Amino acid sequence: MTEPTATAEHHQALEVLPASAAKSIFNLSLFGLSLLICLPVYGLLYPLGRTVRRGITGFWFRIACRLCGLRLTVKGKQTNARPTLLVSNHISYLDIPVLGAVTNATFVSKSDVASWPVFGFLARIAGTVFIERVPARVRSQRQELSDRLLSGEPLILFPEGTSTRGAHVLPFKSALFGVAQALPEGQDLTVQPLSIAYVRLSDGMPLRGLLQALYGWYGDMTLGPHLKAVMGLPGAQVEVTFHKPIAVSGLQDRKALAAQCQQQVALGLAESLGESRAA
Hints:
This protein has 279 residues and is an alpha/beta fold. The chain has 9 helices and 8 strands. The longest helix has 25 residues, at 21-45.
């Protein structure tokens, strides 16, 4: 039997919990209005530096979460150490406003995100570091990441390399952890794993199985229809867990580091989903 595609799973999930068309149109209108208000302010204050810019983008990320019906719970806290690299599992494009609302980090993303409608533009003006996964660019991209980190800018990346339904964590790709080896000799890096979990609907129903396709964005799903549906859903609880930071030497085995981070993130996801089952 042929396995259903991600898009088919999303449609099936919407049959279980239909999205409100009226609510979707209303929230999408507010979403557009918030951009029209925030973008000119962002442009006007851009020369004042990253701290000011980050305040504006953080404010807009919180608005976006509210319009998508996402209520955030945070366990632990982001480290104040510098330079710092945050690493997270990846479930949806919704991870961007969620993590943007609870961290002060800049995202590291694959290069094709830059061409996405609306979100690509927002990613560019927010200073996202775009990565091309080609061997010829590895050295220069590591150096760019190193320069950003040494300037005191925390970075956050999704080492799975793709998004998932949110039930498990894929093995972390170790290549980007090599940024530690690009730092000057004697300069250590703090790596902090974090877990993101979409745990339950607003009525308390756990997001399990097919229902994970309501907020997870993976496989062959397209952004526009998925976002339109999300805007019409009743909302969900999202849990972000900051794990214990790891002090990394430039000579440390990046594959071992990737595996260690993946294990912590996977345990955090399982704990969040386990708590949801008990709720």
